Amino acid sequence: MIQPILPGATIGVLGSGQLGRMFALAARRMGYRVHTFSPDQDTPTGQIADVEVMAPYDDLDAVRKFASNVKVVTFEFENVPTETAKAAASAAPVRPSGAILHTTQQRIREKAFLRNAGLPTTPYREIRTVEDLEGAVAELGCPSILKTAAFGYDGKGQVRVESPDRALEAWSAIGRQEAVLEAFIDFEREISVVAVRADDGSFVHYGAIENQHSRHILDVSIAPARVPAAVANQAVEMSRCVLDQLGVVGVLCVEFFVTRDGRLMINELAPRPHNSGHLTVDACVTSQFEQQLRAVCGLPLGSTAMHRPATMANILGDLWQSGEPDWAAACAFPDVKLHLYGKLEPRAGRKMGHLTALNHDAEAAYQTVVRARRGLTRNDAG
Ligand code: AMP
């Protein structure tokens, strides 16, 4: 059992994006102090934290110094280098552990872990040579998806292979680095389970959340997911297995494809609060960020009960194309909550904020959030 870290203590966050920001908001509300570490300045997390340390992740002396000033280190960005997590661990506990980051930040290791745990993944092959690639395309067929083994997120480092004669071109497009080729899954829908595990093994989850992507980036999340209860339960049980086997202390999100015949395949693991769980801030008794805080501080986990069905819609930088979005138009929907991350530069594809709508009628929540988002860039919100 870990010694509880109580309000008033300082928590360190590696990474400084919106996940760290919402974590810091939860932590400060409960009376904790927050330090954040990243190579950037005036960041989404830094704007909320007590202290913002700006240094490269490979400045291990700076990392050790950062960790020595906090009671526990967590991260909001899973591509923190393993050496950085190790350096932090020399001065403070790191939760979840660096070993979990190591497994989940590289697709080949992640898929090998899932396979060894007896959990279903998309059919895939490891690619290190041209021969591997040719063999994999012949076995998995086309279309298929080539993904870099390391440092991929939001569709970055991914190319669709349309025909065998285009495979080499696709591999060149991602720099001919170590990769996986995945069979293209003509899924019925995508779901995720945001789950939390405490040090004593206790486990809570938010059920299955449905996710719609646009250009490989999450666009809309709907809770509860529109899947049969048996599918949702199975996804939760698989997620429990993932968190137990990895020994996670904190939040981890499991992303699934649901095939047209109702089977589940795990696409990815994210060992941290997840975009699909943002709706828990407004819709649930305890948000995913507060759960992360409770877990890493050794406090009992909170209730995940949902007040009302909810839908979340991301606000990407693309919405700034014709100037500042009309925030008042979104606020004109009384059941819609606006979240902005304080990012200074709205670039295309960049996650700038999100909207959450709550309604006793799940379909109405969906319709409302979509209308509210449309209203951001139009004069009438209708
Ligand atoms: P990823 O970065 O691996 O989570 O991929 C981002 C998104 O691309 C997923 O959420 C899917 O919408 C799509 N995608 C990724 N892999 C596949 C696949 N093997 N088959 C079909 N769609 C995929």
Q: How does this structure look, described?
A:
30% of the residues lie in helices and 26% in strands. The protein is an alpha+beta fold and 382 residues long. It has three domains: 10-94, Rossmann fold; 123-183, ATP-grasp fold, A domain (Dna Ligase, domain 1, 2-Layer Sandwich); 187-378, D-amino Acid Aminotransferase, Chain A, domain 1. The protein has an eight-stranded antiparallel β-sheet with strand order 13-12-9-10-11-14-16-15. A four-stranded parallel β-sheet has the order 3-2-1-4, with helices on both faces. The protein has a four-stranded antiparallel β-sheet with strand order 5-8-6-7, with helices on one face. A hairpin with a 2-residue loop joins strand 10 and strand 11 (217-223). Helix 1 (18-29) crosses helix 10 and helix 3 (82-89) packs antiparallel against helix 4 (98-104). The protein is globular and about 60 Å long. The N and C termini lie far apart (54 Å). The model has no long low-confidence stretch (mean pLDDT 95). The site of adenosine monophosphate has 14 residues, from strand 13. Residues 122, 145, 152-153, 155, 182, 184-185, 190, 213, 216, 255, 267-268 line the site of adenosine monophosphate (AMP).
Low-confidence stretches: none
Termini gap: 54 Å
Give the helix proportion (percent range).
Answer: 25-40%
For the record, the CATH architecture of the largest domain stands as: 2-Layer Sandwich
Largest sheet: 8 strands, antiparallel
CATH fold-level topology of the largest domain? D-amino Acid Aminotransferase, Chain A, domain 1
CATH homologous superfamily label of the largest domain: ATP-grasp fold, B domain
Structural class from helices and strands? alpha+beta
Report the portion of residues in β strands.
25-35%
Number of domains: 3
Bound molecules: adenosine monophosphate
User: Which radius of gyration do the C-alpha atoms yield?
Assistant: 21 Å
Number of E-type strands: 16
- Please count the helical segments: 12
Taking strands numbered 1, 2, ... along the chain, how are they ordered across the largest sheet?
A: 13-12-9-10-11-14-16-15
Give the H and E element order: EHEEHEHHHEHEEHEEEEHEEHHEHEEH
Mean pLDDT: 95
Shape: globular
Determine and state the CATH class of the largest domain.
Alpha Beta
Assembly status? single chain
